[in-house]
Specification:
Elements (H helix, E strand, L loop, with lengths): L1 H6 L2 H6 L14 H11 L3 H9 L3 H10 L7 H10 L3 H12 L4 H9 L4 H15 L7 H14 L5 H16 L2 H14 L16 H19 L1
Helix pairs in contact: 3-5, 4-5, 5-7, 7-9, 8-9, 9-11, 10-11, 10-12, 11-12, 11-13
């Protein structure tokens, strides 16, 4: 905690609240958090202790040094319940997506009424969509259909994460990619309030096409 406090800056303490982050926090940059992560390595017990402080920076660091293999349903649900901003929610989602409970939490959280848990469900879903063997094409197609039906009526941040999952499905390739592109065209613009930030929710069709074009260019250059 002393190292985190020393690494905090007034500038970050001013900027972070624009992204919904609330005190207590020190305002530690991700560059500094990465340095601490490399120094600590994996330390699951320390991660749990850092989380219990309630400090935002400590909790972000906790998600970086926790052992994904030791993440249980109980811990994942407890941590997502504690989330009160999208920054922390996405960090928890990224950790859980690498854990043995990723599939069960994605399915459970997608159906939650709370904005942060539901959002995290789609964060995990997006990562699983591109993980070989983590999801069948049939399940992926079903979820694409759900996104198409529900995205415009979903809570604010859930819309953003659903859009991210749709992009992931598009980048999966094959028939899932075709279904995702068709759904994205029907959905049209996804409106998300990002508050006083420069963040944007990308157009799924354009993003998928641009990413595919970059991949083709990279393959051509490697020949």
């Amino acid at each position: 905690m002393g190292a985190l406090e020393a690494a905090g800056t007034e500038q970050n303490r001013t900027v972070y609240p624009r992204h919904g982050v609330r005190p207590p926090m020190f305002g530690v940059s991700y560059a500094e958090l990465s340095k601490l992560q490399k120094r600590i390595g994996v330390d699951h017990e320390l991660a749990r202790e850092l989380w219990e402080t309630g400090n935002h920076d400590a909790r972000i660091l906790a998600t970086k040094i926790a052992d994904p293999g030791a993440v249980t349903v109980r811990l994942a649900d407890a941590w997502i319940r504690d989330c009160d901003n999208y920054v922390l929610m996405e960090a928890v989602g990224a950790l859980v997506a690498r854990s043995p409970v990723a599939g069960s939490r994605a399915a459970a959280w997608r159906d939650r009424s709370g904005e942060w848990a539901a959002s995290a469900g789609w964060v995990v879903t997006a990562r699983l969509a591109l993980e070989p063997g983590a999801m069948t094409d049939a399940e992926a197609v079903r979820l694409v259909g759900r996104i198409q039906r529900e995205i415009h009526a979903a809570p604010n941040r859930v819309r953003h994460e659903m859009n991210g999952a749709l992009i992931a499905f598009g980048l999966r390739g094959g028939r899932v990619r075709d279904r995702a592109m068709a759904a994205a065209e029907r959905i049209g613009t996804v409106r998300v309030d990002h508050g006083q930030t420069s963040c944007v929710t990308p157009d799924a069709v354009a993003y998928i096409r641009k990413t595919e074009a970059r991949a083709r260019a990279k393959q051509t250059a490697a020949r």
